[in-house]
Amino acid sequence: RRLICIMLQLMDIITMGGSGFGIMALIAGAERNYFSRADVYKRIDKMVGFLEKAERFHGAWAHWYDANTGKVFNFSKFDDGGDLVETAFLMEGLLTAREYFRNGNPDEQTLVSHITKLWESVEWNWYTQGSKDALYWHWSKNYGFKMNHRITGFDETLITYVLAASSPTFPIERSVYENCYTHSNYYLNGKSYFGIKLDLGMEYGGPLFFTHYSFLGLNPNGLSDKYTNYFELKKEHALIQQAYAKENPKKQVGYGANCWGFTSSDDPINGYTSHDLGTNDENGTISPTAALSSIVYTPKASMDALRHFYYDKGNILFGKYGFYDAFNEGLVDGQQVVHSYLAIDQGPIAVMIENYRSGLLWKLFMGNPEIHTGLKKLGFKTDK
């Protein structure tokens, strides 16, 4: 319950990606009787009303908004406009809700129609800068495409291309995906780490949220293409991290087979930062969301971590809304635990636990027929 209730908390600054994850967590909460379907409908309907009024940029939302005004709260100097990746994470949640309420009462069906209008108004192909070479992350009415950030893989952004290809109104062509996402210098891997082969991704796979965000709704079971089987890829990524923690080459305090998980999160030393085993070497910080949100791939390893975090460390790690964001047992002076909760870390825990238990959010998101059109366009195969 506590992992889900965080999604109901009101904040002055709201994040679009975390809101998408929160929508999915709310649906899981309704199905587990933490609160009623009617209450979840009211909450999501209120969210959709906000999204309809918020300033958008060729259909895309910004990364952050002021909850009181609906105006953009700049993420950085030039990042004051559309954020296509955050929009994709939000839309992942909205389309899951659309399917959940599709055959509901008249009020719920009205909500479905509002979500459909939002979905069909995102101009995914605008973010190619008029070419067939790439999707670009940002566009601003003040700075245009000044940030010029191409969305390349393999990382958390796969869902952006899937949704862009699936759009019934502003779709991209397969060439955009092939010319950009699959052509980065860290897309193909093929190496083995601790005896575990990794087909795609940067060294050691990168931070573990790469394994979660796109696959909260996109079902990796039976999903494959010419490069890999995606369930196996994600399982390997998580197991590599557990194996690293077990071997513990840097002799970090606390690491082990039941204490692992490296991803982007708050940090007791550096504030919000990335923790991974390749491009940004870990500093002793463990983020509970990493292991817990991997439960669909590594149920035993994730449950062992859950038991350790809760039964052995719960007196310092578990608070009002679930596990705190991160901890570092090697710190002698200063704060070992970051007493914060981030929607982008809390949301995946609740969603992936429900997917492990019932597959609910996968079933709902994959129930949108457009998604299968987009996956087929991009060369993916599914069990369906």
What does this protein structure show overall?
It is a single chain. The radius of gyration is 20 Å and the shape is globular. By secondary structure, the chain is mainly α. The strands form five sheets. The chain has a two-stranded antiparallel sheet. The chain starts with a helix and ends in a 6-residue tail after the last helix. The longest helix has 18 residues, at 84-101. 42% of the residues lie in helices and 8% in strands. Strand 7 (318-319) and strand 8 form a beta hairpin. Helix 2 packs parallel to helix 4 (84-101) and helix 4 (84-101) packs across helix 13 (360-366).
Strand order of the largest sheet: 1-2
Give the CA-CA distance, first to last residue. Answer: 33 Å
Q: Which consecutive residue ranges, at least 5 long each, have pLDDT under 50?
A: 1-10
Helix content: 40-55%
- Number of helices in the DSSP assignment: 14
* Oligomeric nature of the chains: single chain
Helices and strands in order, then pairings?
Layout: H1 2-5, E1 13-15, H2 16-31, H3 37-53, E2 64-66, E3 82-83, H4 84-101, H5 106-121, E4 138-139, H6 158-166, H7 174-180, E5 188-193, E6 196-200, H8 230-247, H9 288-292, H10 299-312, H11 314-317, E7 318-319, E8 322-323, E9 326-327, E10 337-338, H12 343-357, H13 360-366, H14 369-378
Helix pairs in contact: 2-3, 2-4, 2-12, 3-5, 4-5, 4-13, 6-14
